Amino acid sequence: MGWASLRRTAYLVFFLPLILIGSAYPSKSASALAAWALEREGVLQLRTSVNTPLKASFQSSDSVKGIRVWIDFPGELTRPRTLLGSGPVREIRLGKPKRGVTRLVIEFKKSVYLDPSKLKLIGISPDRWKLKFLGLPLRGLSRIGEGDLTAFSSRDRDWVKAKPLISGQTSFNSSGLPWVPRGRFRVVIDPGHGGPDSGAVGIGGIRETDVVLDISLEVAKFLEAKGVIVNLTRTSEVDLGLFPRVAIANRAGADAFVSIHANATRNRRRDVNGIETFYFSGFRGLSLSKHIQKQVLKVSPGSPDRGVRRARFFVIRRTRMPAALVETGFVTGRLDAPRLAKASHRRELAFAIAKGILNYLQGLS
Ligand SMILES: [Zn+2]
Known about the structure:
Blueprint: E1 9-11, E2 13-15, E3 33-38, E4 43-48, E5 55-59, E6 68-74, E7 81-84, E8 89-95, E9 101-108, E10 120-125, E11 128-132, E12 144-146, E13 186-191, H1 208-225, E14 229-232, H2 242-252, E15 256-263, E16 275-279, H3 283-298, E17 305-310, H4 314-317, E18 323-330, H5 336-340, H6 343-364
Parallel strand pairs: 2-10, 13-14, 13-15, 15-18, 16-17
Antiparallel strand pairs: 1-5, 3-4, 3-12, 4-11, 5-6, 6-9, 7-8, 8-9, 10-11, 16-18
Helix pairs in contact: 1-6, 3-6
The structure holds zinc ion.
């Protein structure tokens, strides 16, 4: 359906201090959207190719869906996808509504009301845009975005490309990890699931339990190489309940507890990918989670940053030390699954998690 013809569709106001060249662009060219982020303050930031004409639209909620705001960019993206939102945002979709067009849709939860007359998409430089969702309830909203908003835009359309891994990081050994005093710290690593509980099962039958056990054993090796005392809650495919995991950590009096998981969508949607880390309480739990999230993102180019969020998972709620639960990617995701199936990527993830933990511990000593 054509959005211009919808009666309930109101156009967002444009403030364009720049001369926009609306020249014809080849329909097969790559998307002019280079990077985007919806910030926790309810501001959508965009980076596009230089002098890109944009179209923004608003649609009120109906009996099925909440308010949708979308922006069309010239050029096509290669990988239409949907990212789950947080707080007032239900989901964000990047799609190809027709040939030669990229559409970024923000769908809000049904309970959210926004006044379209207060929404303005503002061009702030030849390649930067801002849209503040005035009146948006911000509770629970975490930053979500893709690509580098701070990079320089070329005149060519440069869709968020998967960044190649930095060379020199290809051989992951413990000498590249931060230093902490030997024997000072104790960390509990908790590979999620195990035994009859396979956790999520994804593309090609890849099982969460196998993925996370392998990563966890590697994390333990990296940490031990730096003189950290490590307790693993399990080292093989055994059935281990949540109580014993917490008991192991609390008995050990660890400085940090890190539970390692891989994610899945219930309806096995391949377009949902990304990295997220959860904490339950405390500044230290949050700090540990942020350090881990940052490093895991670095070795997962192109996988969306789903953010650091608060959650009530048993193992991070009942452990008495700073605790984090990291989701290392989606076994059901088109981008994440083939990577998680690779031993080399699992080793990169292990290195990243170890680095995050060590950075956190460094801040304590
Ligand atoms: Zn899990």
